[in-house]
Amino acid sequence: MPHLFVRPDSYTYADYYSWPDGIQGELLDGQFYVREPGPSFRHQRVAGSLFSQMDAFFVGKPCIAISAPLDVRLPRPGDDDGAERDVVQPDVAVICDRSKIDDRGCRGAPDWVIEVLSPSTRDRDCTVKRDLYERSGVRLYWTVSPQKRHFTVLRLGLEGRYGPGRTIEAVGGHAVANYPGLVINWDRVFTD
């Protein structure tokens, strides 16, 4: 019997997980955001290049790089597994606590999240998801603008808040202070 897609006031991961495969998107504060049509070639190229550089760096290390689509469930204090109202699919993420990884994805905040900005998701990535990542404890959050060829770095401070973002031109190499030895080669990312 087919599942009916009913729109209550708020969804949980258990609701999301029970839907047919054709219904895809993200839950932000219990609100369902339908996945937009497939990302552009440029978006995928940027995300793929970042992931490949990060993945190669983390081989043999405790952290692991992942790329979308993978459900990242961000529980709030007291949420049972399945009760999460925030489920995202970051373009690229780094998870250093492998106990957060299960067959359904990741339950808990990744250490580092990168969102490649698209015209249809830019506002949400820079506001709603930024606040969600901050509240969930994502230590390092980058947004990358393929159109402007720059990236913004947000670091979680001791008080659990992101400090002022630092926007940097995406050229040459950029050493990632949180991961000594990792240098993102932006000339490789933007090889058009």
Please name the defining characteristics of this protein.
192 residues; tt1808, chain A; 6-stranded mixed beta sheet; 4-stranded mixed beta sheet; 14 strands; disordered N terminus
Q: Describe the strand arrangement of the main beta sheet, using strand numbers.
A: 3-6-9-10-11-12
**Number of DSSP-assigned strands:** 14
What is the CATH T-level topology? tt1808, chain A
Work out the oligomeric state of the chains in this entry: single chain
Overall shape:
globular
**Top CATH class:** Alpha Beta
State the distance separating the first and last CA atoms: 48 Å
CATH architecture: Alpha-Beta Complex
CATH H-level superfamily title: tt1808, chain A
Number of domains: 1
Fraction of residues in helices?
10-25%
| Residue share in β-strands | 25-35%
User: H/E element string?
Assistant: HEEHEEEEEEEHHEEEEEH
Total helices: the number is 5
Instruction: Compute the CA-based radius of gyration.
Output: 17 Å
Largest sheet: 6 strands, mixed
The stretches of 5 or more residues where confidence is low (pLDDT under 50) are 1-5
Q: Pairing-aware structural class of the strands and helices?
A: alpha+beta
* Overall mean confidence score, pLDDT: 90
